[in-house]
Each structure stands twice: as C-alpha cells, then as structure tokens.
Automatic annotation (TrEMBL):
The organism of origin for this protein: Xylocopilactobacillus apis
Keyword Cell membrane: yes
Family: Belongs to the nucleobase:cation symporter-2 (NCS2) (TC 2.A.40) family. Azg-like subfamily.
Segments traversing the membrane: 27-51, 57-76, 107-127, 139-158, 178-195, 202-219, 251-274, 328-349, 356-375, 395-413, 425-444
UniProt-annotated location(s): Cell membrane
Protein name in UniProt: Guanine permease
Membrane topology annotation: Multi-pass membrane protein
GO cellular component, one term: plasma membrane
Taxonomic path: Bacteria, Bacillati, Bacillota, Bacilli, Lactobacillales
C-alpha cells in the first residue's frame, strides 16, 4: 500500500508514465549525473580558494547551491537537468575578478548576487527571448570557446605544465618538479577514461591521482573521510553586506559578464540537452518550460551568492543521465539528494590539490571549445569578433575584456560594411556600455 502510494505520488508530480519512464530509471539517471559532475565539489573550493576564500565553506556552499538548483529544476520545470556552480564562471570569479582586478572576494560575491537578480528579472518578465535572439549566434559560440581556453589555460598553470619565461612570457615546464608528473598522470589517466566512456571518468581520475599523490608522499593523508558539515559562516551573506560596493565602473563590467555568461551558458546547455532527450525539436522556439529552467538557475545563482560561491549553470554532464533514460525532474531530485549526502565528506578536500584538479579543468576546457565549429569563419563580420573574443580571454587573462572587444569590433565592422540596420539596438547599447566602462576603468587606473 505504502509502495503504491509513493509510486502514485511520484507519477502525479513528475508525470512518469506520460514521459515513458520509471522510478528506477530516473534514480539511475540521477545517480549517473551526480557521479559525472561531482568533481565540482572539489574543484570549486580549489579554484575559489585561490581568491582567499575558506575552502570548507565553499565546499558546503557548492553543495547547497546545487541542491537548490536541482530541486528547483525538478519541481518547476520537471526536466532531468542538474544545476551547480560552473567551472567557467568560478575561474572568472577567482582569477580575473579577485586576483587580476584585485577586487575583494566579498565584493565579487555581491556582483554575483546583483547579476542573479538581473537574471531573475529578465526571466520573470520574459525578456530572455529578445536577448537570446538578438546577440549574434557566432558571438555566443565564441564566448563559450573563449571561456574554455581560459579554463584550460588556468588548468595548465595550476598543474605546473607551463611556466614563466623572460623571452616568450610562457613556456613548457622543465618537468623537474615531481608534482608536475602528478598532473601528467591525472591528465593521461582521465583522458583514457573519457575516451573509453567510463562512467564517472573525471571523479575516478581525481581519486586515482590523489591516491598516487598519497602513496608517493606528494599529498598528505586525510585525517578523516567523514566529518560534520563545514560551516558556511566565513562566506554566508557577505554578498548582501557588500552590495553597496558593486556600483563602480569596474564592478558593473563584472556584473554584466557574470549575467551574460550565466544566461547564455545555461540557455545553450539546456536547449542542447532537451534536443538530445527528444523533449525539444532542433530550431524550436524557447518554451515556457525552458524558461522555468532558466528561472531555476537564477534562483540557484542567488542562493549560491548568498551562501558564498560563484555563479551556477546547467551542467552538460546531465547528458549522461539522459543517455540512460532520465526524462523528468525525478532525475534532478535524485542528484540533489546525492549532493546533500556529499556534505559530510569535506575531509577529502585536503587530498584534492591543484595538481589533482588541473586535468579536469583542461579537459572541460576542451569540451567548451567545441563551439568553434558553430562559427561562420567565412564572413569577416563573424570571424574577427569571434577571434578577438576567443583569443582575448586567455591572452588578456580576463574574460570580460575578451567579450567587450568582441562586441565592440562586431558593431564597428557591421557599421563600416553598411549593415548598421542589421545590428540590433541591444548590441549598440552593449557597445556604448563597454566603451564607457573601458574608459572609466582606464581613468580609475
């Protein structure tokens, strides 16, 4: 009786029969997705730790933000899509905003909070379609590819595979440092696992690299495996306390980038995943349910900033769960349950060093660069703005500058070629905003 009641309740909430799926299949799909994306629990504290933030608090904040995102997606949209802090935005947060711009991490969190409110507004008032449809597709693809190169470059640095050089600025490492070989081992092993399509490949790669590090004495043995949930007190609500610090030219640029990256990242990922699941046809307009996934991400991003983590996004790893039959929000709810259970495993953070996480950043970066194939390289008005965006992000070591110069060069080329009328007012507005902010930043320095 009780089993029948539970099955009936889940079917009413998630419409399992209508979607031709079962409870067992949905749980299996959620388990598969969690294994595929669980690396973020350890990579996120490592990346944001470079910004001077408490790694235990970030670990808890990462899990909590993922729980909010997955639960929201489950009940609002009923889609098998997981949401958590993303590997592109956290690198921008730590290495560009905090380390590069020398902005306090508390103020950067406030920037994430303001961007999440902006995300909420455009989603609730359904402005999202206008933004999605009127920024050139080639430029959107270039943003993803540029961030991918930036993330991979940071991974190469963190793993010690590149080093400074007086003549060429950068060069390959000399391999005398034993920790570099730990990175090489992790990269080669994870590449093999990914190529062989082994479930949980990245998690297994990180675990094996950590174990090798412990056996060779390069990584200290953890004091425990299970422990009480880390306190989020060091980071909790810091975003709210520093909202007043956001309204400067420098931080407004950061807010715009946080918003645009989160917005386009989630939109592109969701559309691709739904097409894979057969829940949306290629070329079909954005539906209200897709809007609810964006709303879920905006809610999760708001919670993430308050708890003390970088922006969230829909995870492409959700495709692993879709591949084994996940079709409803019960899949996402299962992912949330696993993230809740993972809160008790924070002691493992001590064995996940930068050499352990570097291979993951390099490989994920390569995934993001695949969007290069979507760019029309035969048209100069598409090719050059895309090139500036892609090259600028890693070379300037700043995602915001890469995107700004991409937008500005697009507008200039289109006007010069006599195609000014084909440029949407949104792009002209973006051009003026970036131009003003660049001048303001230059004056500030």
């Amino acid at each position: 009786m009780k089993k029948g009641f539970i099955e009936g309740s889940l079917d009413r909430v998630f419409k399992l029969k209508k979607n031709n799926t079962t409870i067992g299949r949905e749980i299996l799909a959620g388990t598969t997705i969690f294994i595929a994306m669980s690396y973020i629990l350890f990579v996120n504290p490592s990346v944001l730790g470079a910004a001077g933030m408490d790694q235990g608090a970030i670990f808890a904040a990462t899990a909590l933000a993922a729980i909010i995102g997955c639960v929201a997606t489950a009940f609002l949209a009923n889609y098998p899509i997981a949401i958590a802090p993303s590997l592109g935005s956290n690198a921008f947060f730590a290495y560009t905003v905090v380390v590069g711009m020398k902005i306090p991490w508390q103020t950067a969190l406030a920037g994430v909070f303001v961007a999440s409110l902006l995300f909420l507004l455009v989603t609730v008032f359904k402005v999202r379609e206008k933004i999605i449809n009127n920024i050139p597709a080639d430029l959107k693809s270039a943003i993803a590819a540029g961030i991918g190169l930036f993330v991979a470059f940071v991974g190469l640095q963190n793993g010690g595979l590149v080093q400074k050089d007086k003549s060429t600025l950068l060069t390959i490492t000399d391999f005398h440092n034993p920790t570099v070989w730990l990175t090489v081992f992790g990269l080669v092993l994870t590449l093999i696992l990914v190529a062989r399509k082994v479930p949980g490949n990245m998690l297994i790669g990180m675990a094996a690299t950590s174990i090798l590090g412990i056996l060779t004495g390069l990584i200290k043995m953890p004091k425990a495996i299970v422990a009480p949930i880390p306190s989020i007190k060091p980071t909790f609500a810091q975003a709210l306390f520093h909202v007043k610090d956001v309204f400067t030219p420098q931080m407004l640029t950061v807010v715009i980038i946080f918003f645009l990256v989160a917005f386009f990242d989630t939109t592109g990922t969701v559309v691709g995943l739904l097409e894979q699941a057969g829940l949306m046809k290629r070329g079909e307009k954005v539906s209200p349910r897709v809007g609810k996934v964006l709303l879920s991400d905006a809610i999760s991003m708001t919670g993430s900033s308050i708890f003390g983590s970088s922006p969230t996004s829909a995870y492409v790893e959700s495709s692993t769960g879709i591949a084994v039959g996940g079709r409803t929000g019960l899949t996402s709810l299962t992912v949330a349950v696993f993230f809740a259970a993972s809160l008790f495993f924070s002691p493992l953070l001590s064995v996940v060093t930068s050499q352990v996480t570097a291979p993951i950043m390099i490989i994920v970066g390569s995934y993001m660069v695949t969007s290069l194939g979507n760019i029309d390289w035969n048209k100069f008005e598409s090719a050059f703005p895309a090139f500036v965006t892609i090259a600028g992000m890693p070379l300037f070591y700043d995602i915001s500058y890469g995107f700004a110069f991409g937008v500005m060069s697009y507008v200039i080329i289109m006007v010069v070629k006599g195609k000014a009328k084909k440029v949407h007012p949104i792009m002209y507005l973006a051009f003026l905003i970036f131009l003003f902010l660049l001048f303001a930043l230059n004056l500030a320095h």
